[in-house]
Design a protein that fits this description.
Layout (H helix, E strand, L loop, with lengths): L19 H7 L1 H6 L1 E5 L13 H4 L4 H9 L8 H10 L4 E7 L25 H11 L3 E7 L33 H7 L5 H18 L5 E5 L12 H4 L1 H11 L4 E2 L27 E2 L2 E2 L3 E5 L16 H13 L3 E6 L9 H17 L19 E6 L4 E6 L6 E4 L5 E6 L8 E3 L3 H11 L5 E4 L11 E6 L3 H9 L1
Parallel strand pairs: 1-2, 1-9, 2-3, 3-4, 4-5, 8-9
Antiparallel strand pairs: 6-7, 10-11, 11-16, 12-15, 13-16, 14-15
Helix pairs in contact: 5-6, 5-12, 8-10, 11-12
Bound molecules: alpha-D-glucopyranose.
Length: about 475
């Protein structure tokens, strides 16, 4: 058992006997690959108003039943999904094996509420893992801890059967009379539900080959005493079970094991841009931003606020520039296809990634001494020691850059055409500053007009040898 008492407030309780080096090794493909696809697919694809519709509409099981009876995604082709993801430059994908409505996309032994009992009848998880692996992508499964269908799952503040008059997720405390809650939960047994979850997780971790990621979702311990905590799920037991069957698996942080150092591998900011590399107890941790195209995870026909490819690419490079990943979601239609809006965006991202992926894969935050020139986002590849300057705002003919003294050579990434740079000042000043300190004054990239027509141009900067050391010396 590892023990380390840290002054910084990082949790010290460990569940597994794994060193920091071993953990970094386990996560190495994921921190390298940076870009994944989330897929939210299930019965909620039919009402086409997002995956929370059963809760939002306070629907009973019988009202929701029509979606089960009519689930028949005739255009479903996991290979087409995998090709679209690969074409966009994504390296892994996570599918909702089960979402909060409790519907299972695999042929589970533990409930009848599963895809193989719908008119469609095929095991979607199996087809998904096979097709994505065949395209060389890593595969992950999302598993909802909530289950609005299971008879033993106690009704809580996020459940469609929440007692009338109770408000959902009231953080201030008192919601509903306790007697009402007790009566709606009579006969429900979370112990049985925990057993059921463990059985299902065991099945997913045993019957589908190597699973690279498991994305548990989610824990809400407050909710006025009507939420669910890690103890309600037996999160520790679930995670131990998953890791005993898939020792290499990478897991998100939504089991709620926040008091442990290793009951999670990465943190999951959802639908917002992070300002800084996220920390736990003051330490930078692996992280993945999850984002939708339009606001909803499950297919939402009428949503009009779709992000355009420029915004999506910006989300990607901004994540990498702060040391994180991006998992971008598609909610396939009830026919099982990615709709034209999603496909068009994936294609546009893919065009950019084909030429510029080098600024994403294997990259991370640039050392602090490299300040981003105005209107740019920087990423850095520590192996090749190259800096990538993403021109988010078109700079005009020159772009001021205060690390030009560190540059050996610069080029546009998309076509490897040289980008020249100069130290600003008179010839004499330039000579003096150059000989004395490399580059005292400000310096500029020369931006050719031709670059202005393309989407998010990137300047790839090859640093001088030992620049990092020199730079640190200069900064001190
Ligand atoms: C939230 C939502 C859920 C979605 C998830 C994705 O937890 O409850 O619908 O699947 O975020 O991150």
């Amino acid at each position: 058992m590892m023990t380390s008492v840290l002054a910084d407030g990082f949790p010290t309780r460990h569940l597994f006997d794994e060193t920091a080096g071993q953990k970094a090794e386990r996560l190495s493909w994921w921190t390298h690959d940076r870009f994944g696809l989330f897929i939210h697919f299930g019965l909620y694809s039919l009402p086409a108003r997002g995956e929370w519709i059963k809760m939002q509409g306070r629907m009973s099981d019988s009202e929701y039943e029509k979606y089960f009876k009519n689930f028949d995604p005739d255009l479903f082709d996991a290979r087409a999904w995998a090709k679209a993801a690969k074409g966009a430059g994504m390296k892994y994908a996570v599918l909702t094996a089960k979402h909060h409505d409790g519907f299972c996309l695999w042929d589970t032994k533990f409930t009848d509420y599963k895809v193989t009992n719908t008119p469609f009848g095929r095991d979607i998880v199996r087809e998904f893992v096979e097709a994505f692996r065949a395209e060389g992508l890593r595969v992950g499964l999302y598993f909802s801890l909530l289950d609005w269908h299971h008879p033993d799952f106690t009704i809580d503040a996020r459940h469609p059967r929440m007692p009338a008059g109770c408000r959902p997720a009231d953080p201030s405390g008192t919601i509903g009379g306790e007697a009402t809650w007790a009566s709606v939960n009579a006969g429900r047994d979370m112990g049985r539900y925990r057993r059921f979850m463990k059985d299902q997780v065991g099945e997913l971790m045993s019957n589908y080959g190597r699973i690279d990621i498991v994305w548990f979702d989610f824990t809400y311990p407050n909710d006025g005493g009507h939420g669910k905590s890690a103890a309600d799920w037996d999160s520790e037991g679930l995670l131990r079970h998953a890791r005993s069957l898939q020792p290499w698996i990478i897991v998100d942080n939504r089991l709620g094991l926040t008091d442990t150092a290793d009951g999670w591998d990465f943190v999951t900011p959802e639908q917002f841009r992070v300002e800084h590399w996220p920390t736990v107890g003051g330490r930078r941790v692996p992280w993945e931003m999850c984002q939708t195209f339009s606001g909803s995870w499950g297919y939402a026909r009428d949503e009009m606020m779709w992000k355009d490819p420029d915004e999506l690419l910006l989300l990607l490079v901004q994540s990498v520039s702060k040391g994180g990943n991006l998992i971008l979601n598609v909610g396939p239609t009830a026919r099982g296809a990615f709709d034209a809006r999603a496909l068009g965006r994936l294609e546009a991202i893919g065009e950019w990634m084909t030429l510029n992926g080098r600024s994403v894969y294997g990259c991370t935050e640039a050392p602090a001494s490299f300040k981003p020139p105005e209107g740019t986002v920087l990423t850095y590849n520590p192996m090749t020691r190259r800096i990538y300057v993403h021109l988010v705002v078109r700079p005009g003919s020159r772009l001021a850059c205060d690390f030009c003294d560190q540059i050996a050579y610069a080029q546009f990434l998309h076509d490897a055409s040289e980008v020249s740079f100069e130290v600003h000042g008179t010839r004499t000043e330039q000579k003096q500053t150059f000989y004395k300190s490399g580059c005292e004054g400000r310096a500029y990239f020369r931006i050719p007009k031709t670059a202005l027509g393309m989407r998010l141009p990137v300047i790839e900067v090859l640093l001088k040898q030992n620049d990092a050391k020199d730079r640190t010396r200069k900064d001190n």
